[in-house]
Amino acid sequence: MPSVFAAIAIAAVCLTGSTIAQPLAVQDVMRLPVGTYYRPGGSEVSGRVGARTTFVRSPCPALNTLANHGFIPRHGHNIPSTALRDANMAVFNMEFRLAQLQISSLPPVVSLSDLSRHNFIEHDVSLVHEDVAFGQDPASIDANLANDLLGRAVGGRLGVQEVGSALRFRLERCARKPTGCTFGTNQQTITFREAASFLRLFGGNGAEVIDVSFAHSFLVEERIPAGWSRPQRTVTDSDFVATANRVAQATGLFGNGSPHESTMFVKKVLALLALTAIASVVPVIDAQPMNVQDALRLPVGTYYRPSGTEVSGQIGARTPFVRSPCPALNTLANHGHIARHGHSIRIRSTAIRDACMRVFNLDFQVAQGLISQLPPILSLSDLSRHNFIEHDVSLVHADLDQGQDPAAVDPNLAADALGRATNGMLGVNEIAAALRSRLAFCQTKRCTFGPTQQSITFSEMSFVLQVFGGNLNGACSVDFARGFMVNEQIPAGWNRPGRPVRQSDLTPWANQVRQATMGGRGGGIGGIGGIASIINSLLG
Questions:
Q1: Which of 297, 343, 367, 486 has the most CB atoms lying inside 10 A of its own CB?
Q2: Is it the case that residue 394 has pLDDT exceeding 80?
Q3: What pLDDT does 3 receive?
Q4: How far is CA 424 from the centre of its chain?
Q5: Is 248:254 a contact under the CB 8 Å cutoff?
Q6: Alpha helices by DSSP H, 176-259
């Protein structure tokens, strides 16, 4: 997916890509730079299910726009669904949870025209697409519907009320069809979430309003308009749910939320949210060792931590399970969010990145950076190579020259760290005091704690404070710290941070811990390469 990630830099600002007017051969189209707009027309394109035209498109203006600009394959055929997710995140600044939800009902590989199957994604009561019963190509824009919507603008803008009134008109029209109208709970959910996408994403400001010129460009031309910038703040599923509910109420069809239809709609939206929720209390399997086959059958989320001779953190270990010096990754493996055995995880398949985003709510760019320096296939024990990720002066792991398994938690170091808590909390000063103790011991022998190791160590501590702490306020309860760093388990009562964790949430705390530990010695974390320092920190 190099084109998607190259697109981030383009789409993050204001994309005014070039335009190709005349028809091109598919080979020439595929050579166009990412960002350049080319929209296939006439007999070369279709939105019908099973179409074998050179290009295929969908009833979704957002996906068609991504294809027309080359953020996903321009031909529209046989696209990995994860490519749709990643492009939505890169171009429209969706959070991972929301973007993952958008593809949750799709097969692993999909053609855009597959979305035209009636009541799968395509549905009655669309803003700019005619109901399928009228026989139009499902991907074609109906000029009358588009003009009706755009003509409802007030002061050159469309908001919740205007979109709601347009949808009411569509529904009344749909209900008069001889073939009848299908607008049940599923169709309502899709329709009102699409409206949220239209306002929140196409509007570009993260609010619930869109300039009519932007609306025309995205909906009619399926093109990123000149002057548009993606929302500055990551758009969350909570944003979508709030806007979807307001649009539903603005149709005037559901009163004040008391009718059965409105209740069912809200329940459906909440059910969708639950698909990606992380439970704060999870089942635990820890009574007896399990063979790897039985462990792999455990449901995702269930905690099982291998022990004894069945697990090792030594490089090249051939034990049934392997682990790393990184409590975060070990926690993910113990809960099945990445392969429980820890062997030969396909890093480039984004398993670690996606798990960190899903479980710890890491921002896409931070999580993508996390895997950027890793080999394509990695075993967790590979991270035990000294000064790759494993390093001296660790909070709960002994220095490598002490002869312990690199993945083993040292009980004395753990007790020392947790015992420094003030009022049940670990903050900058408590962690810095523990690190000073580690550094003083390390310096009595051969110790490697240069700029790279310092960056990894202090950035690790920002992760403890901000992510393990769960609330982005620079503190972690001793119970949460014990859960993650000693038991390598998502602790009962923990919730992931309420918004995506960005580099700007981590770097200041890393620098505070560095200053409290080192005083005037060493340099700030941000000075050695921005995301690169955070990348290593999240792994370490």
A1: 367
A2: yes
A3: 39
A4: 32
A5: yes
A6: 185-197, 212-216, 237-250
Please list the residues that pair with 501 across neighbouring strands. Answer: 362
Cα(44)–Cα(137) distance, rounded to whole angstroms? 13
Contact criterion met (CB below 8 Å) for 113 and 76: yes
pLDDT over 70 at 533, yes or no: no
In single-letter form, the type of residue at position 475 comes to A
In the block, which residue shows the tokens 């004040």? 256
For residue 455 the two structure tokens come to 């960056």
- Phi/psi at 425 (nearest 5 deg)? -130, 145
Highest mean pLDDT among 6-10, 258-262, 498-502: 498-502
Looking only at the bridges linking them, the beta strands covering 476-477 and 157-159 are unpaired
Distance CA 8, CA 365 (A): 9
- Residue 242, number of CB atoms within 10 A of its CB: 15
E-assigned strand segments in 406-490: 425-426, 476-477
CA distance linking residue 149 with residue 137, whole number of Å:
20
Cβ 357 vs Cβ 346: under 8 Å: no
Cβ atoms of 369 and 537 within 8 Å: the answer is no
3-state secondary structure of 362: strand
Q: Which pairing describes strands 425-426 and 377-378: parallel, antiparallel, or unpaired? A: unpaired
Torsion, Cα of 187, 188, 189, 192 (10° steps): 120
Q: Give dist(CA 91, CA 363) in Å, integer.
A: 14
pLDDT at res. 282: 43
> β-strand 321-322 against 311-312: which pairing, if any?
parallel
Rounded CA gap, 525 and 503, in Å?
11
What is d(CA 88, CA 99) in angstroms, rounded to the nearest whole number? 6
**Single-letter amino acid code for the residue at 450:** G
What's the pTM? 0.52
370: nearest Cα among 429, 329, 428, 313:
329
What residues are paired with 477 via a beta bridge?
425
Three-state SS annotation for 285-342: CCCCCCCHHHHHCCCCCCECCCCHHHEECCCCCCCCEECCCCHHHHHHHHCCCCCCCC
**Cα–Cα distance for residue pair 114/116, rounded to 1 Å:** 5
CA atoms within 13 A on the CB side of 194: 25
Give the DSSP letter string of 328-381. HHHHHHHTTSS-TT-SSEEGGGTHHHHHHHHHH-B-HHHHHHHHTTS-SEE-GG
Sequence-distant (≥ 6) Cβ neighbours of residue 430 within 8 angstroms: 420, 421, 422
Token pair recorded at residue 22? 């005349």
Burial of 157 (0-12, 13-18, 19+ CB in 10 A): middle
Count of beta carbons in the 10 Å neighbourhood of residue 118: 15
Higher pLDDT, 374 or 200: 200
* Alpha-carbon span 338 to 356, nearest angstrom: 9
What pLDDT, in 10s, does the model give residues 475-484? 999 999 999 9
Dist CA 515 CA 19 (whole Å): 51
